[in-house]
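Complex record, two chains
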Amino acid sequence: MDTSSMDKDLITLSNASLGVISPVKTADSLKIRQRLRRSYRQIKTENVFRRVLVLMGWVMVVLVLGILFTLVLESVPSIRALGAGYLWGKTWDPVQDVYGAYPFLLGTLLTSFLALIISIPFSIAVAIFLGEYYPEGWLPNLLKNTVELIAAVPSVIYGFWGLAVLVPIVRGWETKLGVQPVGVGILSSSLILAVMIIPYAASLGRSMIQMVPSPLKEAAYSLGATRWEVIRSVIIPYTKSGLFAGILLSLGRALGETMAVTMVIGNTSIIPKNIFSPGNTMASVIANEFTEADKPVYLSALIELGLVLFLVTVVINMIGKRVISRFTNE
Amino acid sequence: MKKKSLNFRALLSAGALFLAIGFSACNGGGTSGESKSDSTKSASDDNALIGAGSSFDNPLFSKMFSEYNKLNGLKVNYQSVGSGAGISQLTNKTVDFGASDAPMNGKQDSAVSAPVLHIPVTAGAVVLSYNLAEVKDTLKLTPSVLADIFLGKITKWNDAKIAAINKGVKLPDVAILIAHRSDGSGTSNIFTTYLSKVSEEWSSKVGKGSSVNWPVGLGGKGNEGVAGLIKQTPGAIGYIELAYAIQNNMAYAQIQNKAGRFITPSIASVTAAANITIPADSKVSLTNTDAADGYPISGFSWVLIYKEQKYGDRNQDRATKLLKLLSWVIHDGQQFSGALNYAPLSPAAVTTGDAILKSATFDGKPILQ
């Protein structure tokens, strides 16, 4: 069928749809009608699919904003009663209705960043080993699956392991160093957190390293570079934004971790003096005290703690995004 | 074709509506939200009562309510959510009764719309457990020494004050490590109430409550968390529930009571502690009891109900069932206490409980005769 006849058919068709009676009803025009009907349907499906996507996207935005809104709304009594001093207040005393989040804010940041520092060498090493040295084979596969399994183990199990195995070891170190041997504290929680967050940075780092174009690496080798030099001068610079994104992801995990930390941190609202001191984090205070918060301001102060944690996470994420974009622009 | 897209749109909007309902329902489940729909739903099942509160009571209630179910076919759904949460559910009228290890405080009282009755249902004790491998005899503690330990003023086990009350016991030169509850709990409430009574300094510096600002020590989550800290750390001392200590074979100290006698915590000595003059509203703390052979760190656990049972869409039948259940709990139900390491109510407590239950009314008329 040539184009002119198709045009003619189309015209008749449109006439028909406009209500103009068309005497021509050939087999060809029927086919075209079917084809058109199909393309209408395709357009519809396309539209509906797009709308579903947009809706789903909006649901996520509404959810996050809704959580933020609820946190702010429920924090109002505490903000009104305590003001901004809440953030740097050093006492948390539910009996006197005095609430200061500083010890917990400090505890959260201390444990998370210490955990990050401990975990980085391991996660980068695993990423390089799996991404560059041995991308295939049974041993790397085993390692890869093991690392991924670390992320899948429920955090309460880490808590148990920490309490039963790690805490006595740390207590041994403390006895040797001459500090009060309690075992639980900032160091123990950071070690547990470090183990828990390794897979996040390692997995992302591994896939980034595997994506380094081989011509780049081959060029370096052909110029006489050693493996170490290739890693240092080609792979790391090429993947640093990805590695950093992975580290950021693990930091986010460390900030919010509750159960395992609660079990090994010692749960005291006294400001930690050193990394062996017991402390507390915002997440574990909320988990510990929420059910029995029997006064309106107390409950509200706990919710405000949630708000602070939320904002800390947002701020750290924003800083991270900025760092990543600077790395990539270079 | 047009019809089809309309359908899809309807589906989408139905989905959005569903989500919106979901959100608003979540909101309603919050602390202060209207939960009328919940209460009507719960009231529709006529042969089931709903209670919520103290986790300390939970094992005992599970046993009691299952026995009562065998007798009368009444189902009781008890949610072990913690005393504070139980009180707020009663305040929101989402449950038939609440259960708490502490009487309602002033703020909670002002939040409820009608008078609430406190009925004592069982008694529990808080024991001081310690980890001193070398010490074979049971440690003795006086109230003032105990307060000094928890204030951080006595820091070594071989301190002269501890040695003076434990003559003949060889105490090690080990630092004292204090373990307390990190989660808000009735156990902490009983213990801090006791310390506030026996020590001026504790009362002014720390005070009493289900969570307090501990001057020293480490926090563990739940009885098991505190017990874990004690078992692991040589030189540790901490407070746990009597039932938990008995079930886990933990060493615990004798405490000197008001009469000057050193009392070993046991079911008998806790029941004895409750054999005192109990006020008509039963809101009494058994800590530092006057009873000569009573263990001083013990306390009642209460069931809380509204005095006027006609509220919302409750009917007389439901109110009668609730009151009959509670009457059974304080009488026949007490036989299940001992086996689970709860202290049965003292005769004085049962008499008071009876009088309180009789004062409950439906539409102004008494329910139990």
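Note: Residues 2-28 of chain B form the longest helix (27 residues).
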